[in-house]
Amino acid sequence: MKALLKIEGLSFGYDKVPVIEDICFEVFDQDFIGVIGPNGGGKTTLLKAILGLIRADKGTITFGEKMQGRKKAIGYLPQVRYIDKKFPITVLDVVLSGSIMVDRKIIAQKTIREKAEALLGEMGLADIRNKAIGELSGGQMQRVFLCRALISDPKLLILDEPDTFVDNRFEGELYEKLKQLNKDMAIILVSHDVGTITSYVKTIACINRHLHYHNSNKITQEQLESYNCPIQIISHGMVPHTVLNIHDHEH
Amino acid sequence: MDTFFELFTYDFFQKAVLAAVFASISCGIIGSYIVSRRIVFISGGITHASFGGIGLAFLMGFNPLLGAVLFAVAAALGIQFFTNVAEIREDSSIAIWWSLGMALGIIFVFLTPGYTPNLMSYLFGNILTVTNSELWWMFMLNVLIIGFFTLFFRKILYIAFDEEFARTAGLPVQLFNYLTMTLIALTVVLNIRVVGIILILSLLTIPQASANLFTKDFKKLLILSTVFAFIGTLLGLFISYFLDIPSGASIIFTLVLMFGILRLLKSVF
After folding, report:
1. Interface confidence (ipTM) of the complex
2. B177 φ, ψ to 5°?
3. Which CATH number fits the domain B2-262, given the four candidates 3.40.630.30, 3.30.70.580, 1.10.3470.10, 3.30.420.40?
4. Taking the model in full, what pTM does it have?
């Protein structure tokens, strides 16, 4: 199989109320997919199914050869709002926790540690590695969790709303960093900030129980409506349609 | 001062000091885990449920600690079961086990013929009456806890910090949760003789609150909590002896006082 992962006919519901229905979707190397959709539309549910946190009612998720040992092959950045900020854990330990499925092998604890420190260095966090997680700003914390997701050298990076609680300055940095990472791994990014992500992602998936895959990063309000995806395109400083009108292809 | 050193020559006092060491280690470590994971309320449920077992043991005439262990483990697993499988909200299932255990305990004690003189020492603890066999049990519990936390330290830490992420990494989260719950139950029961059912939560939370003033690192928290628990327990023991007041209450009062002073010192310096 060429794809990293292939989802076929996936459905999941809580207490018989369907959250996602009949989802078909493939992810390839170098993909950078922005997943958008209204609250309760099934964005997080889809991620959880891919991560193996929930078992689908119907349908299958198949992983390609490159995703062998999939626990290690997926890097996951959860929504920081669910993290207990008062937990007594240091930044370095948080990053190391991302290597738990790796270090069972012969790789020495020291090598992993050096790698964690190198990652923190890259993100400009070297001098706060011994601080408690609760002492960091939103942007720093987000970067720490990105380090945790990256330490296992994933083939697929999954980010759940990485732009919440992050200041504008860091948001730009984060997306630039993701663009770089995208050279080595596929990225699936869930966001509610449609305006910002469209300028970074390569393709867009709209999910509101059903999934509509839009093979471009240019999307208009009309298209969103036709996808039955009721979200507003918010753009910074300009009227949405002007921003998105740079159409270099036919739909 | 002579009476102070003389104390250590008494057999009962030596045992009490040993019990203080064991209680500090088990409560220091398990308490740090409980506080970090915010499951103090669950631990309260387990503790109080164990009273049912003590009552049953009085009625049937077997070792009360054995009864307490049975009820505590049942409550620990029962709370998890109610929450995960029966889908009862967690705080409600805790309250159910908490009150059920107490209710059963009172019924059993009421049905027990004659007077039950030891009841108070289970409710409020009496470190000065700890027996040799109880000390042995406490020692073995300490070996178990230290072994478990040394072998699986990183896994325990990662699961406690972010359970969902640990699950995506393929850690046996559920198994670890049941194991730690069992250890919590055992810790609670075997330390009942030190401060009692009603007061045991203090040894699991106050030294940790003190330690948390100085460190935000899980490993250091475990160690520092143990140290503070030991200082507090020993000081409380002396105070109870010299003022002739109940040891359990005295230990807790000392622990709280220690926390207050440390907190104050921290804001001054």
Report:
1. 0.85
2. -65, -45
3. 1.10.3470.10
4. 0.87
